[in-house]
Backbone:
C-alpha cells in the first residue's frame, strides 16, 4: 500500500512537471516587461484533470521593456527584447533553474525591433528578424551563452500600398528542413527574403526572394513535408499574410549547380482563414504552427471576435468576446484543406503553442492579458474546451512549454 502510494506520488510528480514560460510587454507606465513561469497541473498519463490549474512560480524582468519572443533549448531560455524604451534592443540568455526561475547569463545589444529568432548551422549562429529596425541580423553563439555580432542587412525599401507598409518590416525567420537556407517574411516589403547559409562561417548570402502579392503583408511561415524526415522533392512552404489574411502554399524546389545550390518556389494555392464564412472586417492574421504529429496546420486571427467564451473569472457570468484559431489539414500535394475555427479565449491571439503530445494548445490573447489552455483532439485536430486560464498577464507576446 505504502509502495503503491509512493509510486503514484512519483508518477504524479513526473507527469505534472510541465512548466510554461509566458512573456509580456511592460505594463503602461512600467519600464520592464516580464517572463512569468507557471506550473500546469496535469493528471496521470498526461491526461488533463477536469479543472487543470496554472500556478505562478516566478517572474523575471531581465529581458528589457518589450520581451517579444522566447525559445527554450536545453536548460537555457533565449528572450528577445524589442527595445521599445531603449536606444537598442537585445538578445538575452537566461538559465532555467530547477524551480522554474530564470537567471540572466548574457545580453547583447541588437538593432531595434527584433520579433523572432532562429538558430542555424547546428546552433553555431542565430538570426534575428527586426520588424522595427527593417533588418536581419546574425550572431555567433559562444559556449558561455553570449553572442558575437556577425552580419547586419538593413532594408531601405520604398513604401508599400498599405499604411503598415511604410518601410520594410521583417517579421519572422525560419530554417528549411535541409538546414541550408533561412527564409524571412517581410510584411512591409511584400517579400519572403531568402538567404543561404555558409556552413564554414555561418555567413548568409542573399538569394532570390519570393514576391508576395501587393498589400498582402507576409508575416510568419512554416516548412512542411508529408515525409518524415522531409524529402527535398516533397517540401512545401506555407506563408501566412497579416494584411490579406490568407495562407499561400509553395512547392520548394531545390536546385544544385556547381557548388551553388539554390531555392525556388512554385505557388500552389491561396486559402482564406475563415473557410466558407466571410472574412470579418478588421481581421489580422498572426501565428502559424505545424502540429507535433505533422497532420495539421493551425493559425490565429486577431481583431475579429466571432466567438464568445465563458468568463475566466468564475464569479462573472458575462461571456468574453473571443477571436479565433483556424485549423487546416495539409494534403500530400502541398495544399491545405480547411478543417474549422475555434475560439482563442480573448482578444488578439498573437501567439499560441502546442504541448509535445499536441493534446493541449496554449493561446496568448495580447489585448485581454490572458492565456487560455484548450484541450485538442489529436485525431480530428478539433480544438475543444478550455481546461485552464490565467488573466492579468498584460500584453502577452509568447508562450513556451517546458515538458
Ligand atoms: C544600436 O542601434 C543603432 C541605431 O539603430 C544601430 O546603428 C546599431 O547598430 C545598434 N547596435 C547594435 C549592437 O546592434
Ligand atoms: C564569453 O565568451 C566570449 C567569446 O569567447 C568572450 O568574448 C566573453 O568575454 C565571455 N564572457 C564571459 C562573461 O565570460
Ligand atoms: C547562387 O544562385 C542563386 C539563385 O540562382 C543566385 O541568386 C546567387 O547569386 C548564386 N550565387 C553564386 C555565388 O553564384
Ligand atoms: C465591413 O465594412 C464594410 C465597409 O466599411 C461594410 O460595408 C460592411 O457592412 C462591413 N461588414 C461587416 C460584416 O461588418
Ligand atoms: C480592428 O478592426 C476594426 C474594424 O472592425 C478596424 O477599424 C481597426 O482598424 C482594426 N484594428 C487593427 C489593429 O487592425
Ligand atoms: C465581467 O466580465 C465582463 C466581460 O469581460 C466585464 O466587462 C465586466 O467588467 C466583468 N464584471 C466584473 C464585475 O468584473
Ligand atoms: C491536391 O490534392 C487535392 C486532393 O486530392 C486535390 O483536390 C487538389 O486539386 C490538388 N491540388 C493540386 C494543386 O495538385
Residues:
Amino acid at each position: 500500500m505504502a509502495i503503491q502510494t509512493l509510486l503514484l506520488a512519483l508518477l504524479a510528480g513526473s507527469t505534472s512537471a510541465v512548466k510554461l514560460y509566458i512573456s509580456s510587454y511592460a505594463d503602461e507606465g512600467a519600464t520592464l516587461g516580464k517572463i512569468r513561469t507557471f506550473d500546469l497541473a496535469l493528471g496521470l498519463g498526461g491526461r488533463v484533470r477536469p479543472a487543470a490549474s496554472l500556478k505562478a512560480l516566478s517572474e523575471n524582468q531581465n529581458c528589457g521593456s518589450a520581451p517579444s519572443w522566447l525559445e527554450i533549448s536545453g536548460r537555457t531560455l533565449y528572450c528577445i527584447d524589442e527595445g521599445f524604451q531603449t536606444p537598442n534592443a537585445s538578445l538575452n540568455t537566461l538559465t532555467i533553474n530547477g524551480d522554474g526561475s530564470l537567471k540572466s547569463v548574457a545580453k547583447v545589444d541588437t538593432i531595434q525591433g527584433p520579433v523572432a529568432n532562429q538558430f542555424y548551422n547546428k546552433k553555431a549562429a542565430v538570426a534575428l528578424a527586426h520588424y522595427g529596425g527593417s533588418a536581419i541580423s546574425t550572431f555567433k553563439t559562444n559556449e558561455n551563452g553570449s553572442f558575437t555580432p556577425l552580419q547586419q542587412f538593413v532594408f531601405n525599401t520604398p513604401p508599400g500600398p498599405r499604411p503598415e507598409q511604410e518601410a520594410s518590416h521583417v517579421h519572422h525567420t525560419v530554417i528549411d528542413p535541409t538546414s541550408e537556407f533561412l527564409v524571412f517574411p517581410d510584411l512591409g516589403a511584400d517579400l519572403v527574403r531568402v538567404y543561404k547559409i555558409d556552413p564554414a562561417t555561418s555567413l548568409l548570402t542573399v538569394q532570390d526572394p519570393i514576391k508576395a502579392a501587393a498589400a498582402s503583408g507576409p508575416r510568419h511561415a512554416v516548412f512542411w513535408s508529408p515525409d518524415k524526415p522531409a524529402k527535398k522533392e516533397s517540401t512545401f512552404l506555407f506563408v501566412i499574410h497579416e494584411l490579406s489574411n490568407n495562407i499561400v502554399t509553395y512547392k520548394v524546389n531545390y536546385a544544385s549547380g556547381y557548388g551553388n545550390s539554390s531555392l525556388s518556389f512554385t505557388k500552389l494555392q491561396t486559402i482564406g482563414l475563415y473557410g466558407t464564412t466571410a472574412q470579418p472586417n478588421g481581421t489580422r492574421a498572426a501565428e502559424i504552427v505545424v502540429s507535433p504529429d505533422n497532420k495539421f496546420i493551425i493559425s490565429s486571427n486577431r481583431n475579429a471576435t466571432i466567438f464568445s467564451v465563458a468568463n475566466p473569472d468564475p464569479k462573472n457570468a458575462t461571456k468574453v468576446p473571443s477571436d479565433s484559431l483556424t485549423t487546416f489539414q495539409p494534403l500530400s500535394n502541398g495544399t491545405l484543406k480547411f478543417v474549422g475555427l475555434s475560439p482563442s479565449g480573448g482578444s488578439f491571439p498573437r501567439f499560441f503553442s502546442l504541448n509535445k503530445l499536441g493534446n493541449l494548445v496554449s493561446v496568448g490573447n495580447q489585448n485581454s492579458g490572458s492565456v487560455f489552455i484548450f484541450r485538442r483532439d489529436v485525431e480530428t485536430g478539433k480544438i475543444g474546451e478550455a481546461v485552464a486560464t490565467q488573466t492579468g498577464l498584460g500584453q502577452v507576446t509568447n508562450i513556451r512549454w517546458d515538458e
